[in-house]
Write a structure and sequence with these properties.
single chain, 4 helices, globular
């Protein structure tokens, strides 16, 4: 009995010290999924045509080692979180608010969890937006508009996951590029926010 308690305690301390392991996922599948979600978000916003794309970028974030032993927050090798970021300039508040409301209602209706609401007003600045998370996949969607630029921004992110060794080389070419979606005429730009 004492041996089992020592083994259980050692495992628990190890999990806290080294952190829970990241799940393994194919980055190409995650990139495709978040681009599809981006496209659906764009379609739901129903922005008046023609749109003025500000940027459209498929990228990935580094993920930090989660354990207490990593007090410096060093990146975890072989772990990434794909993200698709895009924005549209020239969107008025009168267009942005109903568009964001449509997107919010759809995400809520599909069972996404509301994580954060953003509403700020200051001298010459209005900003509004939100973040939702899909509980099934862990994907997040941020949508926001600000008056300083008259721009609407959408970021769709997959959660951090370990890239299988067999896919490590192939995953390098997936990111740091301008994808074809979500803009209807295929307009792409690698310009970042």
């Amino acid at each position: 009995m004492c041996v089992l308690a020592i083994v259980a305690l050692t495992a628990a301390v190890g999990r806290v010290w080294y952190g829970a392991p990241y799940r393994t996922a194919d980055p190409a599948e995650a990139a495709e999924r978040i681009q599809e979600r981006s496209q659906r978000a764009y379609d739901l916003l129903r922005l008046p045509e023609p749109v003025a794309p500000a940027w459209n970028f498929l990228d990935h974030r580094v993920c930090r080692d989660r354990g207490l032993h990593n007090v410096t927050g060093d990146p975890e090798p072989g772990v990434m979180a794909p993200e698709h970021r895009w924005g549209v300039d020239g969107v008025s508040e009168g267009v942005a608010r109903p568009a964001l409301d449509r997107l919010r209602q759809r995400l809520t209706g599909q069972g996404w969890e509301h994580i954060h609401e953003r509403e700020a007003r200051g001298p010459g600045l209005v900003e509004t937006g939100f973040r939702f998370e899909d509980p099934a996949s862990g994907d997040t969607l941020d949508a926001r508009w600000n008056s300083a630029r008259g721009a609407l921004f959408v970021d769709v992110r997959a959660p951090c996951a370990r890239v299988p060794h067999s896919l490590a080389d192939a995953s390098r070419d997936l990111f740091d590029r301008a994808p074809d979606r979500p803009f209807p005429d295929g307009t792409t730009t690698g310009t970042q926010e």
